Amino acid sequence: MAIDFHWRLPTHGCHSSIRTHNYDRGDWSPADDHRIAPGLDANGEADGHAYIDHLAEIAKAAESVGFLGGLIPSFPNTDDPWVISPLLARETKAFRFMIAFQPGFGNPVQVARASASLQRATGGRSLFNIITGGGGPAQLWWGDSFSHDDRYGRTSEWLDVFRGVWNSDDFSYKGRFYQVEHGGLPAQLRAEEFPEMWFSGSSEAALQVAAKHADYYLSWLEPFAQLADKFAKVKERTAELGGEQKCAIRVDLVARKTEEEAWYEIRRGFENVSEATRDQWRARAGDSVGAARLAALRPSEASRWEDLIIAPNLWGGFNLLRGGPSIGIVGSYEQCAERLDDLIRLGADGFILAGTPHLEEAWRVGEEVLPLLGHNAQALLEAAE
Ligand SMILES: Cc1cc2nc3c(=O)[nH]c(=O)nc-3n(C[C@H](O)[C@H](O)[C@H](O)COP(=O)(O)O)c2cc1C
């Protein structure tokens, strides 16, 4: 079966290296010389570039090495994925754009119409990462004070309505959060391909909503046995509803010619972590079960980068070096490919990969790691003959 490989588009800014802490690509940090798509000149004046020019370079690089599409995250500190994706679609040929989105922040009928229009305009190149939010201050930033499970209830109803108006010209719905009477998109929009749904969240509520609505259940990387257990659970919930669940993993890589070079990057990055970042790392806010699962794996103190090695080629300190989840893959090109192969054997049908800086690492991972996939399995088969 074909495995879907997507790359991440860093709408939160990008570092020029995993060793540095500054978002020094684009205009997310104060002006500096020698930057790619600086946005501001050395005097702090706009220079005609916008950050989206840099995102377009990343999308083109990822497309050129064979990634199917790019995830566009959505946090209080990012650009808006709905605005970014159609602009980038005009810069690429077939690259798909995975819009991260919290249902409930937009009326489902209006979003269905916008989404169908986007499909129509881009030749069906958009898909979703359905997120339901991690609670805490970030949730309130959005003006959303719903409880964890109510958020999932709202997500589920939202997806019912979204699908309903796409599939019918006379759709009515009476839910707790949404009511529609005689709705339905116009025929030319309903004819558009329904966007693929990738779905994130680790709580029981998330697994249940994923079972009903997701094409791909999406997880951050966790230790392999723990991840296999979660995949088994969501597949079980989906089977109970008569479906079959595909699964996917979102993970950062540091891939280098040799394992030593890869760990050297991590060590240099770790040496540059400030005390303020460490304080943030120790603290935790919100009600995200997925984030709690990752936090439970980390030592309360990590004075050495080696303290965060949690399995061969797995390092649990990525969130010290950049925003996002903690566990990533570190190793030689061959080792990175082997770990991805392990994850495919474990049940992954798709990946969203990332590396810092996103532009150069898209080329590196696409050219050096992805071609080695399946190599190990083939070698084992040949050895067995
Ligand atoms: C792969 C992945 C990507 C995510 N991307 C985002 C994002 O872009 N914005 C966001 O606010 N939350 C994001 N989240 C967090 C989700 O909002 C998720 O709903 C949250 O972890 C709470 O769910 P839980 O309690 O069911 O684990 C992501 C989660 C995963 C697993």
Describe what this molecule looks like in 3D.
The chain is built from 15 helices and 13 strands. It is of the alpha/beta class and 385 residues long. It has an eight-stranded parallel β-barrel, surrounded by eight helices. A two-stranded antiparallel sheet has the order 5-6. β7 (197-200), α7 (204-213) and β8 (216-220) form a beta-alpha-beta unit. The radius of gyration is 21 Å and the shape is globular. The mean pLDDT is 92. It binds flavin mononucleotide. The site of flavin mononucleotide has 22 residues, from β8 and α11.
SSE layout and pairings?
Layout lengths: L3 E5 L42 H14 L4 E4 L8 H9 L6 E6 L6 H15 L3 E5 L5 H6 L6 H20 L3 E4 L4 E5 L3 H4 L6 E4 L3 H10 L2 E5 L3 H17 L5 E11 L2 H13 L3 H8 L6 H7 L13 E3 L2 E2 L2 H4 L6 E5 H14 L1 E7 L3 H12 L5 H10 L1
Parallel strand pairs: 1-2, 1-13, 2-3, 3-4, 4-7, 7-8, 8-9, 9-12, 9-13
Antiparallel strand pairs: 5-6, 10-11, 11-12
Helix pairs in contact: 1-14, 3-5, 5-7, 7-8
The structure holds flavin mononucleotide (FMN).
Characterize the largest beta sheet: strand count, sense, and whether it forms a barrel.
8 strands, parallel, barrel
Question: Radius of gyration, Cα only, in angstroms?
Answer: 21 Å
Average of per-residue pLDDT values: 92
Considering the protein shown, what is the CATH homologous superfamily? Luciferase-like domain
Let me know the number of strands: 13
Helicity range of the residues? Answer: 40-55%
Regions with pLDDT < 50 over 5+ consecutive residues?
none
State the strand order across the main sheet. Answer: 1-2-3-4-7-8-9-13
What small molecules does the structure contain?
Answer: flavin mononucleotide
Enumerate how many helices there are, as a single number.
15
CATH hierarchy: architecture: Alpha-Beta Barrel
Shape: globular
* Level-1 CATH class name: Alpha Beta
- The oligomeric state is single chain
CATH topology: TIM Barrel
Briefly note the structural class of the backbone: alpha/beta
Amino- and carboxy-terminal Cα gap: 23 Å
| Beta-strand residue fraction | 15-25%
- Spell out the helices and strands N to C: EHEHEHEHHEEHEHEHEHHHEEHEHEHH
Number of domains: 1
